[in-house]
Every structure is written in C-alpha cells, then in structure tokens.
C-alpha cells in the first residue's frame, strides 16, 4: 500500500475545504445571512478552515469531521445588532463588535497558536 505524502494530503484537504466553502458561500438567507460567510472567507487564514452552518451561525473548524474543533471563535448575531464573538473551547468572550467584518477580523486575530489549514479527519488527526 502506498501512503499519501504530506503534500498530497494537504492538497486533498484544501480541495475538500474549498468545495465546502463553495457550498456555504452559495447559501441563501434561509440558511444564513450571506454577508457572514463572505466576511469570513475574505480572511485567508479563515478560508482554509472547515465551514459549517447551523441555526444561522457560521462555525469554523480545524478538521473536516465530527467532532469538530471548538477552539476557533464564532460570531453570534445580537438582537440589538452587531455580533458577540466567543471561543467555546475555553468559554472565552473575545468581544462584541458592530459589524460582521469586525467579527471575522477579531476571529482571524485570535486563532489558536499553530492554527493552519483544516485537516481531513477529526481533532485526533491534528
């Protein structure tokens, strides 16, 4: 059996993540405010992470399979407007901001140390 090289595995992961971003970026307002994934995708470090949407919120993971990582910040819309940005892994409030662009700038600035492109697999594969 031939084991894939690290660069082959990286290219495979990038292709899988890119395909998922393509889907998420095409979602309509019935799934999420389209400005949210567009704002996240503008940040190169975030566009390399696995995107998923649930209940109108975009989550980002460092792996492509459940259980996904929860150490990347998440922007939750506030009823009063703006976003609350939280990191679930350590229950940290990263901040409250007025715009979706500011939310994803904050998330990009607070990525876990050593965070790189998503890997195919679970957190055990990081």
Description:
This protein is of the alpha+beta class. 33% of the residues lie in helices and 20% in strands. The chain has helices at 6-25, 35-41, 44-47, 100-109, and strands at residues 50-54, 57-61, 74-77, 83-87, 92-97. It has a three-stranded antiparallel beta sheet with strand order 3-4-5, covered by helices on one side. Helix 2 packs parallel to helix 4.
Low-confidence stretches: none
Helix content: 25-40%
By DSSP, the count of extended strands is 5
* Average predicted confidence as pLDDT: 95
How many DSSP helices?
Answer: 4
Beta-strand share of residues: 15-25%
Summarize the structure.
With 126 residues, the chain is an alpha+beta fold.
Q: What does the secondary structure layout of this molecule look like, with pairings?
A:
Blueprint: H1 6-25, H2 35-41, H3 44-47, E1 50-54, E2 57-61, E3 74-77, E4 83-87, E5 92-97, H4 100-109
Antiparallel strand pairs: 1-2, 3-4, 4-5
Could you name the key traits of this structure?
single chain; 3-stranded antiparallel beta sheet; 5 strands; 126 residues; alpha+beta; two-stranded antiparallel sheet
